[in-house]
Amino acid sequence: MSPQVINLFYFIAALCFILGIKGMTDPKTARLGNIIAAVGMTVAVIGTLLKKEIVGYELIAIGFLVGGVIGTLISLFIPLTRLPERIALSHAFGGLAASLVGIAEYYRHGAEMGSIKIAAIGFEVLFGSITFTGSLIAFGKLSEILPSPPITYKFQNQSNILLFVITVAIWIYLIFYPGASHIFYTMVGLAFLIGILIVLPIGGADMPVVICLLNSYAGLAASATGFVLENNILIIAGALDGGSGFILAILMSRAMNRSFANVLFGAFGAVSSESKQKQEEFYAGKVKVTTPEEVAYLLENARLVVVAPGYGLAVSQAQFVLGELAKVLKSKGVDVKFAIHPVAGRMPGHMNVLLAEAGVPYEDLLELEPSNAILPEADVAIVVGANDVVNPLAREDKSSPIAGMPILDVDRARTVVIIKRSLAPGFAGVPNPLFIKENSLMLFADAKQALQEILNNIKGVVSRLH
Amino acid sequence: MEKILPQFILQAVEQVQMGSILIGIYIFFLAAFLGYHLITRVPPLLHTPLMSLTNAISAISIVGAMTIAGMKHDTFTTILGTIAVLAASINAVGGYIITERTLRMFKGRGGGKK
To answer: Closest to B63 (Cβ–Cβ): which among A65, A83, A233?
Structure first.
């Protein structure tokens, strides 16, 4: 088929991608958007199959079938609580694909390449390789194959920066001397190494920012592939993905009031043992403990209840019990809303997905500002498995590591119930004065168990544990 | 002029004059600009499906991978291309399925599937 006809296929695919993302601006059109984008991908693949350059279809078919089956199986059977891992893993595959295409193009043309093309290939391979290994480490941390707290060592930032400078220097060298193939493959190796080393020192709660950045890198790598192959659809789709990941990363780091540099190089959340002892003194004798019965009583007699969920909700898989509790309370005339902090959980929108899974209508999932607008009117605020995102220190103490981070003002509700296993600090490693406020009650338990007992009490079922 | 400027700059100028790179840069910035305006309008509620959808879209690398795998230029690049097709297909197929699965969960107050 002539290149013009194939370009028409790509043009349609680009339109579909843009319309698909436009669909995501409203929950009512989101599913349609996804279908349109999938149609776009199909059109692009069919168009490519018609290319003259393609002489053999067997290997494409094998790769596509094997990949398609793996992709389908993972996506159909992975529990949605493990979505952050699956997203990290998919960034790894995206990065790998871009990187391999770049290496193959270099191998084919290497020395005869023009300087712009070799620059684009270098960019593609660098971003693709960093995304590949970086996402694998993120996947390891999220699935707890690797330890989730930052892994640090001496001169870590310095050695990482040095490595990065060397790699960029090689990239520049290649623009002048594209034929230096050993140097090229050294650069690929270094990029793989950088991906590993930059994600190792990043702790679990900073993962939302890292996942977004890796998402962005995967897109930029795809876009660079477009420059290498002179293919506009790759440039467009890559720019959309790269832009999207970048915007999300900005939103996430803004929600923590921290810069990218601080997230990437801060090794945030490495807690020293000395501060642990200080924390015990901080709380000593000032914490009021409550029981599921008391919480049930409080909830039944409330008009407005606001729930602030955090990563602990996902860990204890308590979303279904929470969803049912909300339903039962609503049937008794209590209004229940959910206050969602942008960085609650391990990826953007994590809490929304969990609660949607538990059948909570999306109108009840409130963003930060509307949540804070209704919290002063709430009779009860329940904090489930969240800590730093409800820590008033962010408002009050300018020297705290979380100073200036926008938080959910749960302490402004008449009563705050905090369901938490212990007084252990959150990710930021700072004590939380919310736990010793006048109007705070602590319920020390696993989130799922605690919510179940509260629910049993409200339903009038005798709790199994009493 | 040829004497003053190093070879690679001349080469770069030539390529830009050829147009394809410049058009590519045009397209990149237009798409990024459009993307910026669309994506800032996506509510935080849908940030997870947005991410899985854009991830599926970036599996467009499959187009490049297929070309290299199907070109049969030499064994090395054919193998790389085939692995790239495999990796990109996981996202291209899986990305839309997981997005659909996630979106199916979001229900309005009416309880209708929207």
So the answer is: A233
